[in-house]
Amino acid sequence: MKEKVLNNKKNGMLVLILTTLLYLLSIAVCVVGAMIGNPLLLGISIFWMCVGWFPYCGLRVLKPQEALVLTLFGKYTGTLKGEGFYAVNPFCTSVNPAADTHLNQSGDVDNSTRKSSLSGLLAGTSEKSGLESAGKKISLKIMTLNNSRQKINDCLGNPVEIGIAVMWRVVDTSKAVFNVDNYKEYLSLQCDTALRNIVRVYPYDVSPNVDTTGDGVADEGSLRGSSEVVAAR
């Protein structure tokens, strides 16, 4: 799946103004048609007042470092990236399988608190739809993932309690959404797996006759004394 950025959709303000003007015009035509008794004008104006709000459903607002993956009837249509006021196909839906996944990382705690506090205040279909759309946005900022500590045996069989902190960000939104089931959970599991593989290669403290580089020569590599060397390797 290759990411396709939609750069020609930043015309939300134009669509908003035109749709509002047409809606006001339909109201005026409806009044005039009723006054002069013209059923054609009356029918056209009433029809537009019933369906004229539909373009509003395609308006999207993005803040800096946010993205929105859009699908049309299950087919990937593109990604909105960068701040701006966008107008897209009203039938397009936003997709983010990790929207409700909250890990011990930056951004997730504040997002869940905001959604829980707003859920008791907002009422009505349009407001709920706007809140749902906001939750489907993908953050492009650098995130800090701090996984919980786990007990792992080092290369000598000694149990070690160790955690991991990872700085990461989404680069390709289409791969993050469609290539894995949940990219946040995938990242967390991959970090735990990599951490276990690293700890099993090194001793916690410097031990004699231990080869940590794989060259057949004993060295002084250890988790406690040479963490920078371990990270570089």
Explain this structure to me?
The chain is of the alpha+beta class and 233 residues long. It has two domains: 1-95, no CATH class; 143-232, Tetrahydropterin Synthase, Chain A (2-Layer Sandwich), CATH 3.30.479. It contains seven helices and eight strands; from the N terminus they run H-H-E-E-E-E-E-H-H-E-E-E-H-H-H. It has helices at 12-36, 39-51, 108-119, 125-135, 173-178, 183-199, 227-232; strands at 59-62, 66-72, 75-81, 84-87, 93-94, 138-139, 143-153, 159-168. Strands 2, 3, 5 and 6 form a four-stranded antiparallel β-sheet that branches. Strands 1-4 form a two-stranded antiparallel sheet. It has a two-stranded antiparallel sheet with strand order 7-8. Helix 1 runs antiparallel to helix 2 (39-51). The chain is rod-shaped, with a radius of gyration of 27 Å.
List keywords for this structure.
Tetrahydropterin Synthase, Chain A; rod-shaped; 2 domains; 233 residues; 7 helices; four-stranded antiparallel β-sheet; alpha+beta; two-stranded antiparallel ribbon; 39% helix
Average the pLDDT over all residues and give the rounded result. 78
* Structural class by secondary-structure content: alpha+beta
What is the strand content?
Answer: 15-25%
Biggest sheet descriptor: 4 strands, antiparallel
Query: Number of domains in the coordinates?
Result: 2
Low-confidence regions: 111-132
Number of helices: 7
User: What's the N-to-C terminus distance?
Assistant: 31 Å
What pattern of helices and strands is seen along the backbone?
HHEEEEEHHEEEHHH
Measured as a percent range, the helix fraction is: 25-40%
- CA radius of gyration: 27 Å
Number of strands: 8
- Overall geometry: rod-shaped
